[in-house]
Amino acid sequence: MVGRPPRFPPNELDVRVTAAATREFCERGYDAATVDAIVAASGVSKPVLYRAFGSKSQLYCMLLERVANELASAAMRSFMNNPGEPTERFRAIISSWFDALAQHPDQWRMLNTASSTDPNVLTTLQRVASMQLENDVTMIRTFLPNLPEDEVQPIAEAIRGSLRAIGTWWLDHPSVERRVPIDAMTRLCSGLFAVTENTNQDA
Q1: Virtual CA dihedral for 91, 65, 155, 168, nearest 10 degrees?
Q2: Which of 200, 193, 198 is nearest to 84 (CA)?
Q3: Which tens digit of pLDDT belongs to each residue from 169-189?
Q4: How big is the CA angle at 141 (ends 161 and 168), to the nearest 5 degrees?
């Protein structure tokens, strides 16, 4: 006779299910991932998983938003708590972002490669993208107050795209020291600060 799956405290339940779900979604993608596989890997029963996390779609969207918020919060905390010279402040923000990436590599890969025709997933991805763009625009307007307004959003998208590319490269090269992607991202954007400094001198 097969016994009942063990009961877990809420915190352990969250850790087990989210870890198993992240691996499944990373390896198979949203559409091919199954609740049965997540249940088997996590050791919880299917009814418990559904009661705690809802549907597969709800679980996936929760994971996407969780890692997006963690990355954004790390950057924004650094942004708010590190006054000073723009290049050094920017480097501190990038460093905080890579710290968060190092703590959640699988979740970030899942966010970075997320795709589906599921309406809930599409809505979540749009909400995450809007949040990221809003945060980036806020920081750019602070760092580059003389930047023409019509250039703010495209530059924000360029910085976000560069972070995705360098973050992916770094995760694919685990032997590389953390300072390397931070140096690369800082160097890549240093021209923006030079343009602003020149504009201020001309004024």
Answers
A1: 60
A2: 193
A3: 999 999 999 999 999 999 988
A4: 15
pLDDT at position 84 is 72
The tokens for 39 are: 């249940």
Region at 94 (left for phi over 0; alpha for psi -120 to 50; beta for the rest): alpha
Which of 105, 102, 119 minimizes the C-alpha distance to 30? 119
Asked if 162 contacts 188 with a C-beta cutoff of 8 angstroms, the reply is yes
pLDDT value at 144 more than 60: yes
Res 200 pLDDT > 50: no
Query: Which residues touch 73 (CB under 8 Å, ≥6 apart)?
Result: 100
Residues 182 and 179: their CA atoms lie apart, in Å, by 5
Amino acid identity, position 146: N
Q: Which two tokens stand for residue 80?
A: 């708010």
How confident is the model over 48-56, as a mean pLDDT? 92
H helix or E strand, kind and range, residue 72: helix 56-81
**Which strand (E) or helix (H) includes residue 115?**
none
Least confident of 34-43, 132-141, 188-197: 188-197
